[in-house]
Amino acid sequence: MTDAPPAFALLPGAAHSPVILHVPHSSREIPADVRPGIVLDDAALERELDHITDAHTAEIAEAAARLAGVTPWRFVNRASRLVVDPERFPDEREEMTAVGMGAVYTRTTHREVLRADGTDPEPLLERYFRPYARAMTEAVAGRLAATGRAVIVDVHSYPTEPLPYELHGEGPRPPVCLGTDGFHTPPGLLAAARDAFAPCGETGLDSPFGGTYVPLDFYGKRREVGALMVEIRRDTYMTEPGGPAGPGLSRLAASLAALVDAVSG
């Protein structure tokens, strides 16, 4: 684990691209000053990172950006979600808080102790969560100013078998799950995603994970901000848990590039 890695990076795409590929959970990096607050020993922490990290999703997004006819922008989290999870609400609105996995996790994927009860989340929220949210808000605002719209494609993965922390793990687990929002996912965006990922097998809707990420400044307010979550089942492209990528990665990157091109318009 390195000392104080960059928290996030906005990687520019074409000036006329409205698309931001958002990759929030691909990193295993934990800054040295964050590590003492985590009670797991090194071996247990590595096992937890195997389960919780959306491994190789940054590589899928990078390959898709190279393949796309119009290069999308990419917003990539450089820190592990065990530092903060930038897609959670930092307050009582977050249902995952019930299992200790709100914006600052206190429990692991197997509901074991990650941070001591009573840990103050505020220092991590101030240092990592809020700057990330501001930067993502600015990235979306930049696409709106440049193109009149923004399309956020959230790139995730999930394990073949449900983990104990999942609140809705009893539903279907298709090769590709498309997470939607009633306000920000227009029918055309959803149809384009289904077409683009058809070569990868069945696509499902909002199971085992639903919804999508939109910065709060725009959420429920700006229909020009479209959003879709792409959840990829890990056995389709990698060895679980936490192992190397396989040939499925290239196929998924090509499908993601096809989606980018379909909505770049």
Describe the structure in your own words.
- The protein is built from 5 helices and 7 strands, in the order E-E-H-H-E-H-E-E-H-E-E-H.
- The chain has 265 residues and is of the alpha/beta class.
- Strands 1-3-2-4-7-5-6 form a 7-stranded mixed beta sheet.
- Helix 2 crosses helix 5 and helix 4 packs antiparallel against helix 5.
- It starts with 7 loop residues before the first strand and ends with a helix.
DSSP, total strands: 7
Largest sheet: 7 strands, mixed
Give the ordered list of helices and strands. EEHHEHEEHEEH
Measured between the Cα atoms of the first and last residue, the distance is 41 Å
- Poorly predicted sequence stretches spanning 5 or more consecutive residues: 1-5
Average pLDDT = 95
Radius of gyration: 17 Å
Order the strands across the largest sheet as they lie in space.
1-3-2-4-7-5-6
The number of distinct helices, counting runs of at least 4 residues, comes to 5
Counting helices, strands and paired strands, the structural category is: alpha/beta
Assign an overall shape: globular
- The amount of helix comes to 25-40%
Q: Tell me the strand percentage band.
A: 5-15%
